[in-house]
Amino acid sequence: MLFAAARRVPALRRAVHSLRRPQSTATTITPSELDPELKLTTLPNGVRVASDFTSGHFVAAGVYVDAGSRYESERTSGAAHMTDRLAFKSTTNRSLEQMTGEIEQLGGQFITSSSRDSILYQASTYSHAFPSALSILADTVLNPRIEAEELDGQRDAALWEVGEVRKKPEMIIPELLHETAYQGNTLGNPLLCPEEQLRSMTLDTLRDYRKMWFRPDRLVVAAAGVAHDHLVELADRYFGHIKPASIPSPSLRPATSTALAYNAPAPSKSSSTPATPSSPPSPAPKDSFVYLAAAPARYTGGTLLLEKPDLEFTHIYVGYESLAINDGDIYAAATLQTLLGGGGSFSAGGPGKGMYSRLYTQVLNQYHAVDFCSAFHHCYLDSGLFGLSISVHPSFLSRTPALIAQQLDSVTRPMSNGIGEGELRRARNQLKSSLAMALESKMVQVEDLGRQVQAQGRKFSMREMAELIDRVTLTDVFRVANRMLRPSSSPILSDRTKSGRPTVVVQGQLEGLQDVTEALARRGLAGIP
What we know:
By secondary structure, the chain is α+β, with helices and mostly antiparallel strands.
């Protein structure tokens, strides 16, 4: 599944000369079943190396760390955000001036981004400069100096960034939605460093966070437009020296139902000592690697109302627990999101813009008080959020909750004015074209490759994704809609244990707003009473 493109960070950089190490012969290369250009190798220390060889003048590379805000403890809250901001600064091999100068000479693009379940570092440059670009990525990932002066500078910049994000409803409400949906755990951890943490963040906190999560078995090195053997040779040179971790990483694939307890090795049994029953394992401390790496996302749902009378529009987000990235219905869910579609009240129009999606034809084109309405779907290793966002003039607030409930209900079963075959066919084609066009970008292509290998252990080619999308039927759409919006009626027994409780976040003028959860309940969309 295509992962969202990374947030760009200003910086352009170049390479350090590294001593060449002999190529390891203990690697395993696994070509994709349907695309021989997709290859995957695992270095002896656990670093995964993935390539997609597509020709072109430019190549792209990325390093993907299985880290992010979901793995933070109370002490390290905000560390992923600050690690992101401190990328491409001074390292043990380069000063800040050297780093900046080398990058500017390359003439490419370098970015870094942190999310809830990943920290990524990417570069795009001319083919001949690829070794230098990968050297820079390796240096900033593995050898950051993290000086006090740099931390203080980024502390001030992050305070400004957080303040700017809070001014923009379209940026802050998705963050608040996650914090409300997963209260006090994993995916509910703040993506942006909390202001109180910014002031108290120390160098030791950042170093401890990196030491815990920047391990070879949690790294993926990926490239697009580079021959696989060449990539493996360079990856082994720059990443092959990292020592494997003493404790292997617990995996959230498939979803883990409970956080793992640390099991110490059992003592060997002497022939002269009778065996005694083993005591139950001690629970791992909640700030330990073993606990945090395997802690499952616990969906809570809830409501958050934020009165801001100075806003022109009132912004409402309604979300439900959805599917993990490896769920068999994930392509049906993506098709449903595309079918609902939506966007802003103003569009330049033209083909392929989703102007015939349900939320355009049935909401935006029908109610002039609606400024924006769109479906969203956030996917993670063991959970997700699916729902609608809408921005309306305050005069329309009394009608908005019922409108949201009606639109969600209409995709759960056949009904008058419900989903038809033509509508589904259009959504499938729209989804395929969106994926194909996005993958024309080398930076998106390499991120998709790295994140798929990181999350799924392999890469689904465009051809495979298109075939899976083409198989989606109306029955699949209705089934996946009920799995997310009305799990008590899901045909899958494990879904029926979910609460089905919605997450509602509202920001803006609240006068006249009807109870959103009550409107959803009238349609059977508020979970088990």
